[in-house]
Write a structure and sequence with these properties.
Blueprint (H helix, E strand, L loop, with lengths): L1 H8 L1 H22 L10 E5 L2 E4 H15 L5 H25 L8 H6 L2 H4 L13 H14 L1 H29 L5 H12 L1 E10 L12 H10 L5 E2 L2 E10 L4 H12 L5 E5 L4 E5 L8 H8 L8 E3 L8 H5 L6 E7 L2 E23 L15 H15 L6 H8 L10 E6 L5 H9 L5 E6 L2 E22 L4 H20 L2 H7 L5 E7 L4 E2 L3 E2 L1 H8 L8 E6 L2 E11 L2 E2 L2 H24 L5 H7 L5 E6 L5 E2 L3 E2 L1 H9 L9 E2 L3 E11 L8 H13 L1 H12 L2 E3 L1 H4 L1
Antiparallel strand pairs: 1-2, 1-25, 3-20, 3-24, 4-19, 5-14, 5-18, 6-7, 8-13, 9-10, 10-11, 10-13, 12-13, 15-16, 17-18, 21-22, 23-24
Length: 703
């Protein structure tokens, strides 16, 4: 009691101490993460200096995460919300700069132009026309009598105004996009001017890559001349060793042994009675369900199944068991199993189709059904007569007449066992032969039924034990991973892995918002670590994941900007190699003759007719815009020099040029071009706005 009294007297001091400790913890964590009282940690990013509030962003991420559920990862949702908010802010900035606005008193015009409101019967007058007064009265009523719904309307109103402003902006841009008659004429000529050629193609792959060397300097020079094509965001390279938590051979054998021991009776000491009890085994136990549930990782299933529903590897064996017989242990996936035949039913599964004729007032009848019960019965009898005719297409009759949800698939109900249908329906299908067509009445209406097939079914009890790593195996793996990690911290990561016979897996060019590692799936934590400012090249870290351990090393850090030669060598080398091969072919074939060019390169002369500039594709060679463009620049009968094509070096001779006949007016082509250009405005404008904007992206800091 004295101790308690002292605690009570000093409770204020304790509270202060605890509070200061918590405060110091939060502050230290804040600074440790690059924060501070003046750091801008409330912004998920900036667009032209304007912040995207983190709280608003998080709310939207949470909303869409609930919408998508497991269909999208957090990073996928974050990326979608980011694109939405950046787009929204860019357009808001443009509308503000241009003075585009929709005032509250103009909202009625926005509503009238929205089909969701303009076609809603609530707001239509007797003539079927949108009535402004009805709409205004409806909103006023919400404000007075349903504040919650009114708040929802205000949010919707804001969204409508925003959408209308954005559309106004796009319409202004589209108004400045057109096409002149001269551009229409050009489009016409690109499509309809034709050229016929004889050509020779020397594929680049006819020259071995080993004969053409490409230096790092040449790659860098190419990049310097094409900087915009090789600008990239910041990236990281890592390598890792994965220690997978999986059962050992000993674990596998132990699970098999334990499940085998359940087959026969066994003797166990009962401490309560101080006697040995003989416990029944799976072969002879009478309470099979209780035995399975007490000993299996998968609960007892009383369902009768057809042979096709059994595991394919053991289906024949299981299905042929006699009642009471046991099979196993056998392995399916990562489970060891033993199975016992409980019962068999001949023709215990039926496949049937039906045509449901409903009537008003019937159980779950469609509201659109107005026929009486007597009318429904009369129609059902008519359909039955049609279905029973020789050669009748039952599925088509179902599609045309059935009121049931299976009408679209021809009335097909699939296979089912007893207990899954209402009794009159079930009695008919299980007591009649395959092919029988009859009429049955249930609470749902009148059913014209066809029995399509029957199968024998069995009831099998199965005990399953999952093969999992034992605690010893888990401990051993932890020890192995720790030993590798500690050794790699002091020595070369790759050399240590080689010495210990572990596979090193490199992952290059990781971006800040990546989340997937090849073979491991979503490993966002690894990517975040790699992009942490405090993580340096060569650093090593262990990550505990549900399936084991990842020991990762950061091997390279790249800043945003123009790529270095070593990073894009695989992309640039083939381009330069093609250029060099084209030069080799030119040097080898120092001739202006098409036939001699073909002969010197051991290829044949081919022909192509009706080529045009709109679709510059050569039959047998593929898309070659540079080659086709060169042909159009030549006069009829002229031969080109060697042309560097996409997949080979070419030489062409123009055999015929056909100029499209002049038109009196090219407005049709001009209008088509204008329409095409305007349709592309929305996406192209957003791309241009993004390219011109200064966008700061902090997503990877928070997600």
């Amino acid at each position: 009691m004295a101790v308690l009294e002292k605690i009570r007297k000093r409770s204020l001091i304790l509270i202060l101490v605890i509070g200061l400790a918590l405060f110091s913890f939060v502050i230290s964590d804040l600074f440790r993460n690059g924060g501070g009282l003046n750091s801008n940690t409330s912004s998920i990013g900036e667009v032209n200096g304007e912040a995207l509030p983190r709280a608003d962003f998080a709310d939207e991420v949470e909303y869409f995460s609930r919408q998508y559920g497991e269909r999208a990862s957090t990073v996928q949702v974050v990326n979608q919300v980011w694109e939405r908010q950046v787009r929204s802010m860019l357009l808001d900035q443009q509308c503000e700069e241009l003075g585009i606005n929709i005032e509250k008193d103009q909202i009625i015009n926005v509503v009238k132009s929205n089909p969701a409101f303009a076609q809603d019967s609530t707001f239509l007058n007797d003539a079927g026309v949108f009535d402004e007064e009805k709409f205004i009265e409806f909103i006023a009523d919400l404000r007075l009598n349903n504040p919650g719904a009114y708040e929802q309307w205000k949010l919707q109103e804001d969204a409508l105004i925003k959408s209308a402003m954005e559309q106004t902006y796009f319409n202004l841009v589209k108004a400045g996009v057109g096409a002149t008659l001269k551009e229409g004429e050009l489009a016409y000529k690109l499509e309809n001017d034709k050229v016929d050629i004889r050509y020779v193609r020397v594929p680049y792959n006819s020259i071995a890559d080993s004969l053409v060397s490409v230096s790092t300097g040449e790659i860098q020079n190419y990049i310097d001349n094409h900087k915009e094509e090789y600008r990239d965001e910041a990236s990281r390279d890592i390598q890792y060793v994965f220690f997978e938590e999986k059962p050992s051979d000993e674990d596998d054998a132990e699970i098999k042994k334990s499940i085998t021991s359940l087959l026969n009776a066994r003797v166990e000491y009962n401490s309560a009675t101080e006697k040995n009890d003989t416990l029944p085994g799976f072969r002879t136990v009478t309470d099979v369900e209780g035995f399975v549930n007490a000993n299996s990782d998968i609960p007892f299933d009383s369902t009768y199944v057809a042979k096709k529903d059994l595991p394919s590897v053991v289906a024949d064996t299981l299905f042929s068991l006699g009642v009471g017989q046991v099979y196993g242990p056998y392995k399916e996936g990562n489970y060891y199993k033993i199975s016992r035949m409980l019962n068999k039913r001949a023709n215990g599964s039926v496949k049937a189709s039906h045509i449901l004729i409903q009537y008003a007032g019937g159980n779950r009848s469609n509201p659109d059904v107005t026929r009486s019960k007597e009318e429904a019965e009369a129609k059902a009898k008519e359909v039955l007569a049609e279905a029973q005719k020789s050669g009748a297409d039952f599925a088509q009759l179902a599609r045309e007449n059935s009121d049931g949800p299976t009408a679209s698939r021809g009335g097909d109900l699939g296979y089912f066992t007893k207990g899954n249908m209402v009794k009159p329906f079930e009695d008919f299908v299980f007591s009649n032969a395959v092919g029988k067509i009859g009429l049955v009445e249930t609470d749902f209406g009148f059913h014209v039924i066809k029995i399509d097939d029957k199968q024998d079914v069995v009831q099998i009890a199965t005990i399953a034990r999952q093969v999992e790593p034992s605690q010893n195996t888990i401990n051993d793996l932890f020890t192995e991973a720790t030993k590798f990690e500690m050794t790699a911290l002091d020595k070369n990561f790759t050399d240590v892995a080689k010495e210990m016979d572990y596979r090193v897996r490199p992952v290059n060019n990781l971006k800040a918002m990546d989340e997937l590692l090849p073979g491991l799936g979503n490993q966002r934590a690894v990517v975040q670590w790699a992009f942490n400012e405090e993580t340096g090249a060569g650093d090593i870290k262990r990550f505990d994941i549900p399936t084991g351990y990842i020991i990762a090393q950061l091997t390279n850090k790249r800043k945003a900007g123009v790529a270095k030669a070593k990073d894009v060598s695989a992309l640039v080398t083939p381009i330069i190699r093609k250029q060099k091969k084209a030069e080799l072919i030119k040097e080898k074939s120092n001739t202006g003759s098409l036939d001699e060019f073909a002969k010197s390169n051991n290829v044949s002369v081919a022909t192509a007719t009706g080529l045009n500039m709109k679709s510059p594709t050569i039959s047998g060679a593929g898309r070659e815009p540079k080659v086709v463009g060169t042909a159009f620049a030549l006069s009829e009968g002229a031969t080109s020099g060697v042309i560097e094509g996409r997949d080979g070096a070419y030489m062409v001779t123009v055999t015929k040029k056909t100029e499209a006949p002049a038109m009196d007016n090219y407005s049709t082509y001009a209008n088509t071009l204008k329409s095409t250009n305007r349709n592309a405005v929305n996406s192209q404008v957003l791309t241009a706005l993004k390219d011109a904007a200064e966008i700061k992206d902090n997503r990877s800091v928070f997600y």
